[in-house]
């Protein structure tokens, strides 16, 4: 019997496949049965309504896409009264992704969504922090520590912290989130980028810069997930460019306990359904009975001594 | 006449299920029809042929000749035939996605997702229909002409193009029993003021119950103005850059007038067809 389940702290998921925030709404229920997923991760919302960024909001890249959607949000009240009831029909852990402009706002929103029906809060700390001149919380360890500490004190729900690849100190940021009380890390988010239409000399996104996602960023996000997994003792959920079975296995082998699939769903809305079937078939074909037999099994070249000898 | 509330524009999020599917289908033909446009005919399963006029598909365009389209390309349906199992698209090669499409040959496979979005409505009160469109927008309105014929409505099709030979769908509209009027840039008859006179004349002579159009901001503004003046409703199929096509990514929003407020709606989900009076050019 193949056991696809995985543990994220206290929470057991039926399988390690879930959507990445911002790429999943009830609209996907038109394509396949969403009850097969390991968790439901909703689009980030803010306490107050936001309209989002000017169009164009997406552009095509050679091996992925770039977006500057800008977190359009209908606000907390709409979420609690209109969005939340839809998900109660599924017996799948519900992960709500929240964003705010300051540590205090983040904490207040976390408290407000600590309600029945919600299994996990995912804090999208990759958004600009108005207290830090617009720099994202997740860029530095100290701002990460401060915002996560506030969130931790505001809710008893499991707290997943979504980290940004747009930092020069990924290990310090991961450790800061852990020490401030994160139950798991989601690694990573989009990579800040720019694309220009040379015929018009205009940026290809209305907001000028945007977040690159898809296969183009997989090695970057995978590296960062690996760094986070080996430098902390909390579960890491890999996210970035996963489109194939091999992509997913790489993240698990690198130390991730689960994965999030995002941009691939835009290209092919049945991706998660397909990956789930392929994972099970691969485990059976390879005599692997549980996900735990895959997680964190990277065979590093030698043990580090060899490279010292060579040098 | 009183304004009719078109079907399906009530409460967008809850009002419908698109019943779409992602399938690989066989290319039956993919040939130029004139110097700018190509017609692609696909052998499609019934699961994706429950279409209505104005709906669209998301096509996973092939990577070819140095082009690497990543996201699907939205394309309105030119024709669908459930009995024959055929799906048709009429397109102009304009970028990486359509250049890839143009490389497909008979027997090749293409991954399509659809049908998507909300199509045109045709309430009983709308007996005398007028469609006004230009260029590839005429392809979007082709299935509407067939539906008008099926429902026994009269149709006047004003087909605008740069030159007469580029006026799309003219034969198809004639075959559907429509009165076809071709207006062109070449002789100046496609200019908004010339069109206004033409349309006003038809309204005075025969009466018009509803307008249909597609894409062009210039035609939208003209029909909004004439429609408001004469109390004639209508619908427009709109375009916007998309990623998912299902409503998840929020990329394809446009602004719409709702009473005194301006609201964003998703072209892929609440649209692509919207009331002409609410659309902002």
Can you tell me about this structure?
The complex is a heterodimer of chains A (311) and B (281). Chain A has 311 residues and is of the alpha/beta class. Chain A is built from nine helices and 16 strands. Chain A has helices at 75-87, 103-112, 141-154, 170-179, 218-231, 245-253, 263-267, 271-285, 305-310, and strands spanning 6-8, 11-13, 17-19, 40-41, 58-61, 64-67, 94-98, 120-124, 159-163, 184-187, 191-194, 196-197, 202-203, 209-213, 236-239, 258-261. Chain B is built from five helices and 15 strands. In chain B, the strands form three sheets. In chain B, strands 4-3-7-1-2-6-5 form a seven-stranded antiparallel sheet. Chain B has a six-stranded mixed sheet with strand order 10-9-8-11-12-15, sandwiched between helices. Residues 1-16 of chain B have low confidence and may be disordered. The A-B interface holds A 22-25, 27-28, 30-31, 43, 51-52, 55-65, 67, 69, 72, 214, 265-270 and B 17-22, 60, 68-72, 96-97, 111, 113, 240-244, 246-254, 264, 269.
Please summarize what this structure is.
The complex is a heterodimer of chains A (311) and B (281). Chain A contains 9 helices and 16 strands.
Task: Compile the SSE list and pairings.
The complex is a heterodimer of chains A (311) and B (281).
Chain A: E1 6-8, E2 11-13, E3 17-19, E4 40-41, E5 58-61, E6 64-67, H1 75-87, E7 94-98, H2 103-112, E8 120-124, H3 141-154, E9 159-163, H4 170-179, E10 184-187, E11 191-194, E12 196-197, E13 202-203, E14 209-213, H5 218-231, E15 236-239, H6 245-253, E16 258-261, H7 263-267, H8 271-285, H9 305-310
Helix pairs in contact in A: 2-3, 3-4, 4-5
Chain B: E1 21-32, E2 37-43, E3 56-60, E4 73-76, E5 79-81, E6 86-92, H1 96-102, E7 109-116, E8 128-134, H2 137-150, E9 154-161, H3 170-175, E10 179-184, H4 192-205, E11 210-214, H5 217-230, E12 234-237, E13 253-258, E14 261-266, E15 273-275
């Amino acid at each position: 019997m193949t056991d696809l389940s995985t543990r994220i702290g206290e929470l057991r998921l039926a399988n390690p496949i879930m959507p990445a925030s911002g790429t999943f709404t009830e609209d996907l229920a038109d394509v396949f049965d969403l009850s097969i997923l390991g968790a439901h991760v909703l689009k980030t919302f803010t306490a107050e309504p936001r309209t989002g960024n000017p169009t164009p909001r997406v552009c095509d890249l050679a091996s992925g896409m770039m977006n500057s959607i800008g977190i359009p949000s209908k606000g907390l009240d709409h979420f609690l009264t209109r969005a939340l009831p839809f998900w109660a029909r599924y017996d799948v852990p519900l992960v709500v992704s929240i964003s705010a402009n300051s540590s205090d706002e983040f904490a207040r929103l976390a408290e407000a969504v600590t309600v029945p029906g919600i299994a996990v809060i995912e804090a999208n700390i990759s958004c600009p922090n108005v207290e830090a001149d617009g720099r994202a919380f997740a860029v530095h360890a100290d701002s990460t520590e401060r915002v996560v500490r506030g969130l931790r004190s505001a809710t008893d729900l499991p707290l997943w912290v979504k980290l940004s690849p747009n930092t020069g100190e990924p290990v310090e940021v991961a450790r800061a989130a852990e020490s401030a009380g994160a139950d798991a890390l989601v690694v990573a988010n989009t990579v800040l980028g720019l694309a220009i239409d040379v015929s018009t000399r205009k940026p290809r996104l209305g907001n000028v810069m945007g977040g690159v996602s898809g296969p183009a960023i997989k090695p970057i996000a995978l590296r960062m997930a690996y760094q986070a997994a080996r430098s902390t003792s909390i579960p890491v959920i890999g996210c970035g460019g996963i489109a194939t079975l091999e992509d997913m296995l790489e993240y698990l082998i690198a130390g991730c306990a689960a994965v999030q699939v995002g941009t691939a769903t835009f290209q092919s809305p049945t991706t998660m359904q397909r990956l789930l079937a392929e994972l099970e078939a691969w485990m059976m074909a390879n005599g692997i009975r549980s996900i735990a037999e895959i997680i964190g099994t990277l065979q590093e070249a030698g043990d580090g001594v060899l490279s010292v000898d060579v040098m | 006449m009183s304004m009719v509330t078109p079907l399906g524009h009530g409460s967008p999020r809850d009002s419908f299920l698109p019943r779409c599917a992602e399938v690989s289908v066989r290319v039956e033909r993919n040939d130029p029809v004139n110097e700018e446009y190509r017609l692609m005919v696909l052998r499609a399963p019934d699961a994706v042929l429950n279409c209505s006029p104005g709906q669209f598909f998301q096509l996973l365009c092939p990577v070819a000749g140095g082009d690497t389209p990543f996201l699907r390309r939205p394309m309105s349906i030119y024709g669908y035939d459930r009995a024959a199992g055929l799906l048709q698209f009429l397109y102009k090669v304009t970028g990486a996605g359509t250049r890839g499409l143009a490389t497909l040959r008979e027997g090749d496979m293409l991954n399509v997702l659809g049908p998507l979005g909300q199509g045109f409505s045709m309430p009983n009160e709308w007996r005398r229909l007028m469609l006004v469109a230009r260029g590839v927008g005429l392809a979007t309105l082709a299935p509407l002409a067939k539906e008008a014929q099926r429902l026994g409505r009269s149709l006047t099709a004003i087909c605008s193009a740069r030159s007469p030979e580029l006026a799309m769908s003219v034969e198809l509209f004639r075959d559907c029993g429509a009165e076809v009027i071709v207006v062109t840039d070449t002789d100046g008859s496609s200019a908004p003021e010339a069109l206004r006179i033409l349309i006003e004349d038809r309204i005075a002579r025969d009466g018009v119950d509803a307008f249909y159009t597609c894409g062009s901001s210039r035609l939208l503004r003209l029909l909004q103005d004439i429609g408001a003046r004469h109390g004639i409703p209508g619908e427009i199929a709109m375009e916007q850059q998309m990623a998912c096509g299902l409503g998840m990514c929020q990329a394809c929003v446009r602004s719409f007038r709702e009473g005194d407020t301006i609201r964003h709606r998703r072209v892929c989900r609440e649209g692509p067809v919207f009331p002409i009076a609410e659309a902002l050019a």
